[in-house]
Amino acid sequence: MRQVNIHEAKTNLSKLIEKAVHGEPFVIAKAGKPMVTVSAYTPPPDPAKRVGFLKGRLQIPEDFDSMGKEEIQAMFAGEE
């Protein structure tokens, strides 16, 4: 990975960013000591696109809302 000093990074920032966007990350150093790594930004997945991703793959039983009703009531009542 290429290492550049702060002065060079300030002078050539546009060119360095363009290279990072195209898969060439670099390190900015101060007095030869690495300070930060610059790489292309990868946006997180859009959570809105995840909604409904299992549509048609699952079947929910008709009695889903009442499944285990007796067991749950017994647990809340302290019965086992």
* Helicity level: 25-40%
Average pLDDT rating: 91
Would you tell me which CATH topology of the largest domain applies?
Answer: YefM-like fold
Strand portion = 15-25%
Tell me the number of helical segments per DSSP (H or I, 4 or more residues long).
4
Tally of DSSP β-strands: 3
Structural class: alpha+beta
- Morphology: elongated
Radius of gyration over alpha carbons?
Answer: 28 Å
Which residues form runs of ≥5 with pLDDT under 50? none
Number of structural units classed as domains? 2
Tell me the name of the CATH homologous superfamily of the largest domain.
YefM-like domain
The biggest beta sheet reads: 3 strands, mixed
Run of helices and strands: EHHEEHH
Quaternary status of these chains? single chain
Structure report:
The chain contains four helices and three strands. It has 80 residues and is of the alpha+beta class. The protein has two domains: 2-38, YefM-like fold; 47-76, no CATH class. A three-stranded mixed β-sheet has the order 1-2-3. It is elongated, with a radius of gyration of 28 Å.
Task: Provide the descriptors you would attach to this structure in a database record.
alpha+beta; 4 helices; 2 domains; single chain; 19% strand; 3-stranded mixed sheet; YefM-like fold; 80 residues
How do the strands and helices of this protein lay out in sequence?
Blueprint: E1 2-5, H1 6-11, H2 13-21, E2 26-30, E3 33-38, H3 47-50, H4 69-76
Parallel strand pairs: 1-2
Antiparallel strand pairs: 2-3
